[in-house]
Amino acid sequence: MDPSIMLFLAQDGITNGAIYTILALALVMVFAVTRIIFIPQGEFLAWGALSMATVEAGHVPGTLWVLLLAGGLVFVLDLWSQRQRRDRRALLRSAGWNVAYPLVLAGLLSLLPLAALPQAVQALLVMLVVVPLGPMLYRLAFQPLAEASVLVLLIVAVSIHFLLVGVGLLIFGPEGSRTQPFSEAQLELGSLLVGGHTLVVMAASLLLIGGLYLFFGRSLYGKALRATAVNRNGARLMGISPALAGRLTFLLAALIGVMAGLMFAPLSTVYYDSGFLVGLKGFVAAIIGGLGSYPLAAGGALLVGLLESFSSFWASAFKDVLVFTLILPVLMARSILSHGVEDDE
Amino acid sequence: MTIPTPVLQVEDLAVCYGKVEAVSGVSLTVPPASIVTVIGPNGAGKTTTLSALMGLLPVRAGTIRVDGQPVGTPEVSQMVDHGIALVPESRELFGSMSIEDNLVLGAFHRHRQGARDSRQTMEQVYDLFPRLRERRTQAAGTLSGGERQMLAVGRALMAKPRLLMLDEPSLGLAPLIVRDIFRILVDLRQAGIAILLVEQNARAALQVADHGYVLENGTVRMDGPAETLRHDPRVIESYLGLNSKHQQMLAS
């Protein structure tokens, strides 16, 4: 193997690693705040990617129908839970976000010439459609179970994953799609050709990481999420309800998932069930960080990306095996190195 | 003369853990700008009562009125909305976050309501507890017991509560710090905040309070003006002891 191939593989690995990084960060964040191991993270990637492909083809993405339906369900649930205490403001807000917003978006999508729009606008539309599904999912599946154990939440997360894969097959069909890269430019660095899309992925990932850092470090809502992760009861006493924290976390997780999907789709063909495997690689990275450390998770994600690209060169049939085997020595090292008893929370 | 509407009025409160009734038939009233204390031995149901009033534990029976308005079953968010703050016995600080962040989060609910004066409130809290200002960037988890209690009270004050409920603020603290904290409670009453104080340190509590309730086995055994309770032979025998001049001096 000559240096140019090595550089090429490294570039490939880092590009994928950047995507695994943001997925891993989302998984760590969701677990810290809500104690949910967010298996359906990958579905947001797949839905984002496939919705983008549909919009590029000039059609209204099927996720819009899911949004309309899920929003309606959330509103009915909110109505039901408010049947005794009629908090008009809360209901009005719920109607606005869950009924009016999807309808306005549906109107917009049916009027716009989707295929002719600039790519950035298409990506924005996809985000507007898919990202709100995150908080809706939390409201429908997890909010009623906020006090449940980690195991129960995991079981629900797994079943949601299967449900979303099924819905994905229904709305996107079994065919895979690949979208246009965000940049066709080629940058020549010595013997290395750096693709424009690679640079876009790196820049977007770094921006997202920086944005999350600022959000959690500076903004009141970011601090509120951290507080919920540190001390759930203390946060409740400050008026930071677990429901609010959960919806906000799922909004961020969905945003990250959709962004990952938009970046991933030009690199590889995405099918309705592709999300799981990609999400699982993000999960391996998160486990390397013990599902609690953001920097370690990011480092782990880069390691996963590099390992994957180099093993696809040497032993392509085993590339997934090698990546997932990585988790064994990591778990062993963690269990040998960790002392003391871990708290339940 | 009209009696001002109590900030908090509880009638026949009952709270259960499963089938065991921990608190039953508890009635108490907290008038505005007053300190009301609930004293009693371990396991009398003091913490249970506070937790239920805040919505942390389910209420089995009883009516709770805030400013004369009945609240159905209390929920934490609803009670926060009514301007009620609880400083729990376990403090529940955000250990890995700085003192300043802990305080900022104390004003979270007010911020959501549109208030933008948390900076000013924070200065007031810092004036009350200068030690917190000195250590504003330090993580809450590194503080001593007394400083933690100050932070817990300060964080609750960031919400500008009308009723402050404190669960055993003197627990595990040196007597001098206890005196500091109780002095601040008197200042807060001066500022118009109503205080519901649950204490095992009956002497110190009755010293600052206007009204006292003695809770035993989940029911109110005695109640009356703090001054009267302090001289009641039964209270002296059970909770104050006879030869504890030293404590009395510290509490004054």
TrEMBL record, chain A:
List membrane-spanning regions: 20-39, 59-80, 92-114, 120-138, 150-172, 192-216, 248-271, 283-305, 317-337
Q: What are the recorded GO MF terms, alphabetically?
A: transmembrane transporter activity
Record localization: Cell membrane
Is the Transmembrane keyword given for this protein?
yes
Mode of membrane association: Multi-pass membrane protein
Q: Which GO terms describe its biological process?
A: amino acid transport
- InterPro entries registered for this protein in UniProt: ABC_transp_permease, BCAA_transport_permease
Name where it mostly resides: membrane
CC terms in the record's Gene Ontology section: plasma membrane
Q: Which UniProt keywords apply?
A: Amino-acid transport, Cell membrane, Membrane, Transmembrane, Transmembrane helix, Transport
Please report which protein family the annotation says this sequence is part of.
Belongs to the binding-protein-dependent transport system permease family. LivHM subfamily.
Please state what the protein is called: Amino acid/amide ABC transporter membrane protein 1, HAAT family
Q: Which organism is it from?
A: Insolitispirillum peregrinum
Automatic annotation (TrEMBL), chain B:
Single GO term (MF) = ATP binding
- Taxonomy, superkingdom: Bacteria
Q: Which GO terms describe its biological process?
A: L-amino acid transport
Tell me, what's a Pfam family for it? Answer: ABC_tran
Metal-binding among the record's keywords?
A: no
The family line of this record is:
Belongs to the ABC transporter superfamily.
Put simply, this protein is called Amino acid/amide ABC transporter ATP-binding protein 2, HAAT family
Organism per entry: Insolitispirillum peregrinum
| Lineage of the species this protein comes from | Bacteria, Pseudomonadati, Pseudomonadota, Alphaproteobacteria, Rhodospirillales
